Amino acid sequence: MINVSLIGEKKPLQYIIILVIWNLGVLMGFTSIFFRGTIFFKILGFSFLSSFFIWIIGNLLIKSYKVTGNVEISSDSIKIIKDNIALEFDLLKTKNLILDYNGAEGDSYGYLGSMRINSGSKNTISFEYEDEIYKLKFLAKNRNFLNSIFKIVKTWKENGIDFKIMRYKKDITDKLLRKQGKF
Question: I need a surface site. Which of 32, 135, 140, 179 has the fewest CB within 10 A?
Answer without folding.
Answer: 135
